[in-house]
Amino acid sequence: MKRIIITSLFTMFLSYAGIAQTRPQQSALNLNPSFLNPAATGIEDYSQLRLGLNKQWVGIDGAPSTAWVNGEMRLKTKADEQQEDVISKGHGIGLNLYYDKIGPYTTLNLNLGYAYHLPLSQGLVLSAGFAGGLRSTRYDIAKSLNPDQPGDPAAGVQASLSKKYTPDLNAGLLLNGKNFFAGVSMMQIISSKFVDVPESESKYRGQLLSSLGYVFRFEDQATSLWLSGVVKSDFANPLLYDINAKLWYKNLGWIGSTYIKDDAVGAGFGVNIIKSISISYLYEWGVSKHISAYSKGSHVLCIGFKLLKDNQSGMPKMGW
């Protein structure tokens, strides 16, 4: 009975996902801002590399699993333009690579990104960026929980172990102040089918994201509270949103929590092992009884490396 229930739950999820696929849902905005908005590419004065792993719904066969790599660098930022808490003028370039697996679908995506950061006034910076690349989607019908998904005739005729390549294009704007940010981005601008069969509804649909964050700094100047949120829409399904809170102490690390609408609540921490290396972890509990009854929760792990020069503090100016 338990196996039947789990299979039914996951089949419903795949039926929904098969109609309109979106990029993997990142649980914490601070772990990789440019993944959700290309305008954040190279926003720091230092170069950095981040490695991440997200295991969702542990205990359920075929549940989503995503591994990703992000690398970013700032081009030719003058030393006299760098300020400890202000984003400086300049160009940023970056790379986002992720490997995503859910049920019978496996996706490999590579994006190259660029952003320009323009100070509008003291402490206020407008950033604009875009990212583009190629996505490879593989469908293994032998691993499908329901090979005859209703509403998508492609599922029954798609060749076993087929692969489809599609383009990926994303763009965004980001406004940063000393204590806030506000951004908007359009992801998967080019809508494309990942199962190439006539009348197939299996496609990547564009997604609009709006983000907002604010920092409350305490009197001791060593502690600060960072609040942020993201609202997501694919123009076909109900709005999704997540809310994040982090309590920073100096440059040592943070503790925080997150809430994802109709999905999960989570708690986590981040620690700067040394000034140039950090590790972050987040554990999530499913809020839906249909999932939490059979899943052991979800895990998010991220390791970051910063290439610091001279006396750079390593404290992110966009601390989300």
From TrEMBL:
Top-level taxon: Bacteria
- Signal peptide residues are 1-17
List the keywords (alphabetical): Signal
Family matches, as Pfam families: PorP_SprF
Kindly provide the name given to this protein in its UniProt entry. Answer: Type IX secretion system membrane protein, PorP/SprF family
Organism equals: Chitinophaga arvensicola
